[in-house]
Amino acid sequence: MLPSENRLRRRQDFSTAVKRGRRAGRPLLVVHLNRDGGLPGRTDPHRDSSPHAAEGLPSARAGFVVSKAVGPAVTRNLVKRRLRHLVRERLDRLPEGSLIVVRALPGAAAASYLDLEHDLDAALRRLLRTEPTGSAPTGAGR
Predict the structure, then answer these.
(1) One GO MF term, please (predicted)?
(2) What number of other Cβ atoms are within 10 A of residue 80's Cβ?
(3) Domains of the chain, start order
């Protein structure tokens, strides 16, 4: 199970991660990551009012979206449990205070645990790459 302090529960937190974060799509899932979504004073000034808030920077928090397009309730819950377990093992790789939303696509219903793991790892690798500083356009200076 995902620890309480690492769960996204509020609609506003999901919206922040999806609208302001970066997205990486894979065949089985789409991952949205907002690196500064949980920092006090940035997007959610009331974040520290949670009884589970840790001292200092808030820990990374994750949420999951598994729609009815994935399948019936039993299938959706299986996919959600698998994704929760996979994300829990990778929380230490995420920046402090980040928000992550993992949205399962219909193909996730028939996917194995290893397939989900492969797609999640690939999406996280893409999202956690350092971004260019933007000081010079690509190909400049040649």
Answers:
(1) tRNA binding
(2) 17
(3) 4-128 (3.30.230.10)
